[in-house]
Design brief:
Strand 6 and strand 7 form a beta hairpin. The radius of gyration is 15 Å and the shape is globular. The protein has one domain: Thiol Ester Dehydrase, Chain A (Roll), CATH 3.10.129.10. The longest helix has 19 residues. 20% of the residues lie in helices and 46% in strands. The protein has 3 helices and 7 strands; from the N terminus they run βαββααββββ. It starts with a strand and ends with a strand. A 7-stranded antiparallel sheet has the order 1-2-3-5-6-7-4.
């Protein structure tokens, strides 16, 4: 049985709070290697009213943010608590981001993420986003673990 985290457990790992905490679940966790994050894109999500009125679409930048949050949760969950205590994960770069299909509210966005490598406090990841097995986006990104001030 694979390990999973619910939203309350994710809140214990990440500093993000509503409305910016985008991921609802992290499942299929392979410690410090990969996981699948679930984002429930709702009709009342905070971006719906303004992006775009009458035809809402989840902004691509929020898909990238969800990738980053998923990777941060995967990493924080896998590290020893004393190593991660009083730390934050900051996005450093985004590469090869492709937005293939619009993400329309009232769907479950699944983000399959993988840690490609780590060097000290710098990690590199890749991910693919799907709705009903249809690829919506993919990207690679880097992040670093920094001290919380």
């Amino acid at each position: 049985m694979s390990e999973s985290l619910n939203k309350a457990q994710i809140k214990n790992l990440l500093p993000h709070r509503e409305p910016m905490l985008l991921i609802d679940e992290l499942k299929n966790i392979k410690k410090l290697f990969s996981a699948t994050a679930i984002v429930n894109v709702k009709k009342d999500s905070f971006f719906v009213q303004g992006h775009f009125p009458g035809q809402p679409v989840m902004p691509g930048v929020l898909i990238v943010e969800a990738f980053g949050q998923s990777a941060a949760a995967l990493t924080a969950h896998g590290l020893d608590k004393s190593t991660y205590e009083n730390k934050l994960v900051f996005l450093m770069s985004v590469e090869k981001a492709r937005f293939r299909n619009p993400v329309i509210p009232d769907c479950k966005l699944e983000l399959n993420i993988e840690a490609i490598r780590s060097h000290g406090k710098v990690w590199k990841y890749k991910g693919e986003a799907f709705v009903n097995q249809k690829k919506m986006a993919d990207a690679q990104w880097s992040a670093t673990i920094v001290d919380r001030k």
